[in-house]
Amino acid sequence: MSIEIRNIRKQFGQFTALDNVSLDIAAGELLALLGPSGCGKTTLLRIIAGLEKPDAGQVLFGGADATHTHVAERQVGFVFQHYALFRHMTVFDNVAFGLSVKPRRERPSAEEIRERVMKLLKMVQLDWLADAYPGQLSGGQRQRIALARSLAVEPKVLLLDEPFGALDAKVRKDLRRWLRELHNDMHITSVFVTHDQEEALEVSDRVVVMDHGHIEQVGRPDDIYEHPATPFVTQFLGDVNLFHGRVDAGQLTIGSYEQALGQHQDADGDAAVAYVRPHDLDLTLQADGALAQGRVEHIHAVGPVVRVELQQADGQTIEAAVSKERFRALGIVPGDTVYVTPRKLAVFLKDAAGQQDYVI
Amino acid sequence: MANLTTESRPVRYVLTAVALVFLFLFLLLPLIGVFWEALHKGWQLYLTALVEPEAWSAIKLTLISAAIAVPLNLVFGVSAAWAIARFDFRGKSLLTTLIDLPFAVSPVVAGLMFILLFGANTAAGGWLQDHGLQVIFAVPGIVLATVFVTFPFVARELIPLMQSQGADEEQAAIVLGASGWQTFRKVTLPNIKWGLLYGVILTNARAMGEFGAVSVVSGHIRGETNTIPLHVEILYNEYNFVGAFACASLLALLALVTLLVKSLVEWHLHRQQHASTLRTAEARLQAAQP
Description:
Oligomer: heterodimer
CATH class of the largest domain in chain A: Alpha Beta
GO cellular component, one term (chain B): plasma membrane
Shape of chain B: globular
Distance between the termini of chain B: 37 Å
Strand content of chain A: 25-35%
Number of domains of chain A: 3
Order of helices and strands of chain B: HHHHHHHHHHHHHH
Shape of chain A: elongated
Radius of gyration of chain A: 25 Å
CATH topology of the largest domain in chain A: Rossmann fold
Keywords (chain B): Cell inner membrane, Cell membrane, Membrane, Sulfate transport, Transmembrane, Transmembrane helix, Transport
Protein name (chain B): Sulfate transport system permease protein CysW
Largest interface: A-B, 32 and 25 residues
Structural class of chain A: alpha+beta
Transmembrane segments (chain B): 12-36, 56-85, 97-120, 132-155, 241-261
Helix content of chain A: 25-40%
CATH topology of chain B: MetI-like fold
Helix content of chain B: over 70%
Order of helices and strands of chain A: EEEHEEEHHHEHEHEEHHEEEEEEEEHEE
Pfam families (chain B): BPD_transp_1 (PF00528)
């Protein structure tokens, strides 16, 4: 079922959680709401679920207005950040809960409930834990039981609040792949909230990047990563180096470095910031055509990529990531002076108000 | 291994001994004293002291006021705790403070408040008396005073418990389609049942044992407005020690029975949990084998 969000506003006292947010979610899509804490992503999820009421705006499910539909009638599955399993019930009873509270005439027979619950438990590979209480399960097991419980009522929409937030790195990776596969099999419209850009980019069909109650950018993961629309998105999606300069008629100037841009043709000597990811920076020993120079401070050579930290004359740090081969060919050691050239940069003009640098 | 984290042996023995001696001197010895005083002249006298009409009327009145105060404060306590732990509203902190009022006010003052409110010379009391309802120096006053002093127990027990548990499970139940009542019965109540039981036990103990507030509004009319604690005091002042301690032992016995019930329920629950843990461990083993 498709979801439309139209001009949603939500205020908590003086704090604006959502400021005129609109978003279309296609049927069967797996969408990630990504942003730092306090950006409004969880509030938006809870408004879709009906756990929170918007101050203004509409939520449409399959084209029909559901803004005033009660949570219990929205037919959504919701997986809470800390799972919210019923601690006094067994795993079986937890998963059966949604079926057993249905009104008598809609409720399946005890035998049917048993069958459906066991089928779901098999699907999450935990049927052997049917008799256990939530307190006896590990975090990953609880997560899967919470998912099975929300799927038992055959929801039209699945909503997950930081689904992997409370798990350790290894379990996280496994569950991520598992959720992706599950979605491929079931094709239920799913929205999940996360503050982890890697998670959002890896799992979802589309990513919505949010900040301060606004949507900054919506797009496919590779699109967002390759073409971030705003400085915030650029910074939030991963480590990035900042270089301050000017743009005049599509020509970028940073110190003595010059490059023609395919954009900002009407800029007239405007102040600009160029963002370069560490792996888009190449290290050289030649000063010609270099963007900047710095002294090698640290070298982290663990893994396939070598991360080199440079200190500029003005104290700013530059981080570059080069392949092991390139690093060996350069033969640099801490204390050396090296030069960096960008393979790819994202340039944003500072607007009249002075574009602030986002701190994450 | 344990020696690294615990006190040395002599220190442990001394601390344990101090605790045990204290327990014996201040809890066990007085309790034994009460029963010994009540029974040392024989069963016959003990039973006679309990079934004589004035004692019997005091027992009945105590049970009646507890039977009214406990359910009333149970319902109130759960609603208040629910409201305070789950919702934000204007006047929430005022309500939280008001719940504590009966603890802050001396019971005697509480009794006097009711006399000032419902005494025969006041507007409310006069009006009620004209309509055939005497509050002060009668059963309604005793019930009112009992409800007032036992007011905070259930809510006090539940508010921190419900706040620490959070609303997640209840929200999960509602998203899964449960109605408000189903959510309360199947999710909220099982989660708070131990706190609730404890609150009820405390309420009951205080309702039956309350002296100060009840003493002020009762008027001490023998066979009519005496509860067990008031009756004990009267007998004691008349040097009827067997009678006084017989009634006192009844109160003590009630306390012991409630404690026993609580332990039994806890033991039963613990056994269920343990059985489930064993079953899970077995299932884990089976799942691990190819």
